[in-house]
Structures are given as structure tokens and as C-alpha cells.
Amino acid sequence: MNGLQIVVLGSIVPDPLQTLEPVTGPAGPALKNELMLPAVLDPWAACALYEAASLAKKTGGKVYLVALGPKAKLQQVMMNVAQKVPFEIVVLDGPAGGFADAAETAKALAAGVEKIPGLDKGKLLLFGGWQSASRSTGAVLSMVGELLGVTEQFQGVDELVLAEDGGFTVLERVEGGCYQKSSCQSLPALIGWATGSLPEPPNNPQVGMANMRLIMPALAKAAPAPLKGEGLTYASVEVPSQRRDTRIVKDASVDDIARELADWIRA
Predict the structure, then answer these.
(1) Are strands 5-14 and 179-184 parallel, antiparallel or unpaired?
(2) What is the pLDDT of residue 33?
(3) How far is residue 48's CA from residue 154's CA, in Å, rounded to a whole number?
(4) Distance CA 5, CA 52 (A)
(5) Which residues form a coiled coil (predicted)?
(6) SS (H, E, C) 201-246
(7) What is the pTM of this model?
(8) 3-state secondary structure of 255
């Protein structure tokens, strides 16, 4: 299929290798020293972006990245991401923490997608992460699809194959390490990517320079997306507690181990 428009929804998140400590501030929950934490493109969204670029290269399509976050931080992250694959960016200047309201975030992202010049939903593939390192569980992605009228949605996708007649098939993860294979006859569609099968592309300075010529003006023209979070409250914010009970037992049967584990979980 020629002329595909692949729109990737992605945001920046604190580097997962950092220690993230939740705190309660004047404006509500936040991360301790959040402004000082190094940021990266959400790893789930990064997988979606690489899959989008690979698909666009095969079909002659075009990739757009719609990113919501503080534009100063976005600029820092894009200096690295821009060297990976070619894309155009739509920037929404707003908070990128994990405590923003999912519905409000989805409305802002949907409005950003609608602003893409020449958007043709008959050729649209809406990509994103099946889950998120900041907003989790793909809630935002599915709501963006609904707001845009994209009702064919697939989550936990590891493979997407386009057919010459304009249709496509996807493999979605299901329980037990199995896949569900689904087929559709036409676009648009929403794909929530798992990890796919592609490695992270190597840095290419030429791609980076070409991308930055478009990224810098887009950052300068970033639309404000304040995400006020009105009516949103949190009862508490804390790091999950760790619990470890170790007991060494020799020659226990599989049934005994399973029974003891079940009893421990119930307790």
C-alpha cells in the first residue's frame, strides 16, 4: 500500500535506570527532583517508532511522531532519537509525568493528530506502545483511537503484515505465550506495539541532521497542552513495598511447592 500515514504517539519519561521516588507537592503527586532526572523516549513508544520507520521504508509511507512533554526536555531527547529513523514531529508542550489524567492527555494527543497537514484516515495507521513507562496499560492510546474514530484496535502486537489489496494481518499476544492472528480489510487501524522484532537502529548523523531541520521549527511552534487535571485526586503515592521470605527445603514435590505458593499468595 502506497502513501501510508503512520502516526506514532510517544512521550518522554524519566530514564528507567534512575531511582524514581514519588512525593506529594503543592500541585499534587510528582517525582522527587523530576526536573533533574535524565529523560528518554518512552521505551514502548520507541519500539512503535522503529516499527513505523521500517514499515514506511517498505511502502513509501511517512512517519509522524506526536509527542507531549516539556519542549525543553523534548529537545534534549530528540537530539538522540532523531539519529535513529526519519520522521516529522508534532510537539505539544505540557507535562509528561505519570500523574497526568489519561483522558485529558488523550484529548490533547488527538487534537495534535488532527493538525497533521493532509491527514487521510483511509491511509492512517496509529501506532503507540501497548503499555507505557509513565501512563501504563495503553489507556491513553486506546482513548486517542476512539476520539479519532479509529475503532479497529489491536494491543500487544508483535507483527504487522500489510497485504497488496490494502488489508493487513496482526499477531497479538495472548495468554500462555500464544498469539491471536487477526485480519482486517482496510485502514484506519490502531496498533499498540509490544516489543516487536526489530533491534534499536544505529545512530545515523545524516538522518539526524535532516530530522533536526524539521524538529527545531516544530519545537518553536509547540502548541500548549497544560493538562490541568481538574477533579483528579490521588489518595496516596508510594514506592511498592518489597517483601521476601526465604526458606530452603530439600526434596519437596512439585505439588507441595505449588500448594505452598498458593497458600502464601492467599495469605
Answers:
(1) unpaired
(2) 80
(3) 13
(4) 10
(5) none
(6) CCCCHHHHHHHHHHHHHHHHCCEECCCCCCCCCCCCCCCCCCCCCC
(7) 0.84
(8) helix
